[in-house]
Amino acid sequence: MKYLGTVCIGALALALGTAASAQTTTLRIQNHQAPESTSGRLTAEFVENVEAMSDGDIKIEMFYSAAVVKSAETFDAAASGILDCDMTNGSYQTGKNPAFQFVADTMGGYDTPWQQYAWLYDG
Predict the structure, then answer these.
(1) pLDDT tens across 61-93, in order?
(2) Which keywords does UniProt give here (predicted)?
């Protein structure tokens, strides 16, 4: 989950890197977690941090619990402009490319948590 969050933050920074600083940008982002879950609360904190760090130049309209489209459809919704970003787990997209399982549920490929840890930290 930490890796997916890092990827999302990196993609967000890259996408907004060329935006004019005087212009307010509003992003529509969907998360598959419930707002009251731990991940949902951390997502709300992420939204607050982005808005604070951008001095209000970046606003995020966050949709929780697959409110706009089903979790398996967020990738296409972001690609087609229905959403601006997708913060769902990559395992929902393994039908598009089986390799997505390695950024989503890496434990499926390892015998122990230590093997997963070694992969995440050492490659």
Answers:
(1) 999 998 999 988 998 999 999 999 999 887 788
(2) Signal
Contact between 35 and 27 under an 8 Å Cβ cutoff? The reply is no
Q: What angle do CA 44, 46, 21 make, to 5 degrees?
A: 120
Paired tokens of 38: 């731990």
Interatomic CA distance for residues 2 and 106, integer angstroms = 12
Q: Please give the structure tokens belonging to residue 81.
A: 């402009």
What is the C-alpha to C-alpha distance for residues 41 and 34, in angstroms, rounded to an integer?
A: 9
Kind plus residue range of the DSSP H or E element containing 85: strand 85-86
How many whole angstroms separate alpha carbon 68 and alpha carbon 31? 10
At the second CATH level, the architecture of 2-88 is 3-Layer(aba) Sandwich (3.40)
pTM over 0.90: no
